[in-house]
Amino acid sequence: MSDTNTSGDHVEVAGAKIHLLKSGSGDAILSLHSIEGNLGLLPYLDALSQSACVYAPTHPGFGSSERPDWLETIADLARFYLWMLQGIELDKVHLMGGFMGGWVAAEMAVMNPDILQSLTLIGTAGVRPSEGEIADIFLLGDEQTTSLSIGNPDLLTTAIEPEDPFVRLRGREMTTRLCWKPYMHSPSLIHLLPRVHVPTLILWGENDRIVPVSAGERIADAMPDARLEIIAGAGHLPHIERPNEVIPLLQQHMGLTD
Question: What predicted TM-score, i.e. pTM, was given to this entire model?
């Protein structure tokens, strides 16, 4: 898989066909989406693909990606993606994800830190905040969760919900399967993060109303080589709301600048 054009195809992992979007060439970036599903090559990913090769899979059970019968938890999903990396022959990646995707990325990192060139976590779930609580997205529902996710609606130019109602419903069902108990965190993850020694960028919106900033502070404190960057005025989706501010941080972190 070495072409330099944007392409979407399916790869088989553990007997399941997974949709995989790929764009660019160079160092590999694996980008893991959150509860909204795979929204394609958003501006921040498009910018990264100009100097690296972005891999953006659709999680099993979301969109057109199949779910193996055994895949029931976030830890299962992390193991699944480690298997996928082996199958597509990627030894080292810049790994990134937001909220649920960040949780998966963090689990992958503690399972096998040797695959990482860098790690980026954006408003991630997986760790309970020291102050406040992770918002109950199942109680809130789609519309209110979307509203709470956006720090400043005037700055959001990209829809964050798939248009197809079936795709939305399938994604919500899979999110419930993966994240319900314990809700949006793993009790063990915070204790395992210290084994990840690769450079880690933790991005958080100043006005995140889904996951309190204190969760990002806990993660940064637990990791040997992590730094927390708070994006002023942004909500839960700083990489989507404020791409012009976030893209340079990502490029610098991944060594993609001249």
Answer: 0.93
H or E element: which one contains 98?
strand 93-98
Question: Alpha helix (H) ranges present in the chain?
Answer: 43-48, 74-87, 100-111, 137-149, 165-179, 189-192, 213-222, 238-241, 243-253
Residues 121, 143, 209, 249: is their CA dihedral positive or negative?
positive
Contacts of 227 (CB under 8 A, 6+ apart): 200, 201, 202, 220
52: DSSP letter: S
Strands 7-13 and 28-32 come out as unpaired
Question: Which among 122, 123, 88, 93 is positioned nearest to 108, based on CA atoms?
Answer: 93
d(CA 206, CA 232): 5
Using one digit for the tens of pLDDT, what is the confidence trace for 211-252?
A: 999 999 999 999 999 999 999 999 999 999 999 999 999 999
Indicate the pairing of strand 116-122 with strand 93-98.
parallel
The predicted pLDDT at position 151 comes to: 63
Q: Are 32 and 97 in contact (CB under 8 A)?
A: yes
Question: Is the link from the previous residue into 182 a cis peptide, with omega within 30 of 0?
Answer: yes
Element (H, E) at 119: strand 116-122
Strand order in the sheet with 53-57: 7-13, 16-24, 53-57, 28-32, 93-98, 116-122, 200-205, 226-231
* Exposure class string for 210-220: b at 16+ Cβ within 10 A, else e: bbbbebbbbbb
